[in-house]
Amino acid sequence: MNPWKGKRILITGVCGTVGRELLRQIVPLEPAEVVGLDNNESELFFAMQEFRNYANVHLSLADMRDKDKLTRLMEGMEIVLHSAALKHVILCEHSPRDAIQTNIIGVQNVIDAALANNVERVLFTSSDKAVNPTNVMGTSKLMGERLMTAANAQKRDSDGPIFASTRFGNVLGSRGSVIPLFKRQIEAGGPITLTDPEMTRFIMTLKEAVSLVMDSTFLAKGGEVFVTKMPIARIEDLAYAMIDELATDEIEVQIIGSKAGEKLYEELMNDEETRRTLELQNYFVVLPAFKSLYQEIEYTYPDMSSEGIEKPYNSAFETPYGRVELRDYLTSNKLI
Length: 336
Hints:
Blueprint lengths: L7 E5 L4 H10 L6 E6 L2 H10 L6 E5 L5 H7 L5 E4 L6 H6 L1 H22 L3 E7 L8 H19 L7 E7 L1 E2 L6 H10 L4 E3 L5 E5 L1 H14 L5 E4 L3 E3 H12 L6 E3 L11 E3 L1 H4 L2 E3 L3 E4 L19 E2 L5 E2 L8 H10 L4
Parallel strand pairs: 1-2, 1-4, 2-3, 4-5, 5-6, 6-10, 7-9, 8-12
Antiparallel strand pairs: 9-11, 10-15, 13-17, 14-15, 14-16
């Protein structure tokens, strides 16, 4: 069964790493129409060239801060995949007002536009940084999740949009990830700069990230946060795995210290959330803390194995890949 066939789909942030891959994977699934939005003029032009032979793909210059334009472009859409965001931790720390306008008010604008057009489903792409946030970007992502959950809880019409979120870790190879940085540093002869050798991160491939978004779209009952199960890597091991694979000469590794608001570990689920989490074969599903005001929602899913999780899903508590295992993961997924 192909649930995307014949659907009208809107993707925000279509020029970002995840948004672009969503477009590439959805187009072959025979949707009636795909509308892609982004405020990056140059990248939007290149995307238009890439998909110029698809009559059902329409790409538009738009900003999440413009609710009127979002509402107009969402007319007739059935599924909205919201991946547009400001995602760089340091830039959001320096410009918190912009993070609020795009990552919080922008999410509310998407919600309002979806309600005005009575779309079927809205999926928000969140981040591990939303869990117990220590920086502006993570805080804004947490607020985005809460806005989605509240929108689902407060809708009066059971036929209205299903709002849900996905939460994933570092997408390796994306423009904001550390792999392109390390690769450039190795090509330049070093040094590779590490913030802290003990830092751990959840990692996933772009294919895994997009799979989470596409699966969650149709699994969602309303208000949940879907969390994918994924491997862990020490950033120091990632650096040495890349040196072993790519370097021809000796590369120095330089410790530069943690950045403002940066954690030594990442969390995909905190202690409070474990009590309302369901475990599926490939995902955890964090159920809403507050029930819907106007409808009873039955949260049942295929491959459901347990209710409630014993410990938070935290990169500091999980066993990371070894360097050889990590190198194999990177090469088998063509990340280096």
